[in-house]
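Schema walk-through. Below, the input block comes first and the output block second. Nothing else is stored per chain. Lengths vary across the set, and this one has 167 residues.
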Amino acid sequence: MRAPIASKTERIVASFASPLTSTSPGRIVPPYPDGVVETTGTCIGDATVDVAAICDHAVAVLDDRQSGLRTILALAQVPHFGKQPLWRIADALEPDELADRGVEVATGSCQQRQADAPAVVALVRPRDAEWLAPVLRAWRFDAASGRFEAIAAVEVRCRNEGFGYDG
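--- output ---
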């Protein structure tokens, strides 16, 4: 019996040389593998809870133009020196919808049930409106478990941060 073929996410994660499991601390990034670039990222801490911890966790979107793969990473900050932060990969998502370049990832600008939810990540289609809706799929990063958890997309909306900007 042949071993199962690894998914694109598993291959990218393997290229980081550290599997993403609950028992593994994960790969420290950056750097990312050649050809993989971080296209967006944001801190997802809650300043109303602890302003000093606002960047303890982040979400980043990686794009590998050669393979067409876009991956959403949950990151935990690790001690570092200098100006560039270092992150431990806590979790990763590879939603099928991201194969469509018309779908974007909204991070740090979403609300869940009309309340700001900085840890919510959503798949949206850009449009000329203040709110990006409908949301196609959504997840919330749970810092305690270090994992993304699926949430009901109908409960989520994300601010179109570029709406009304003409410059």
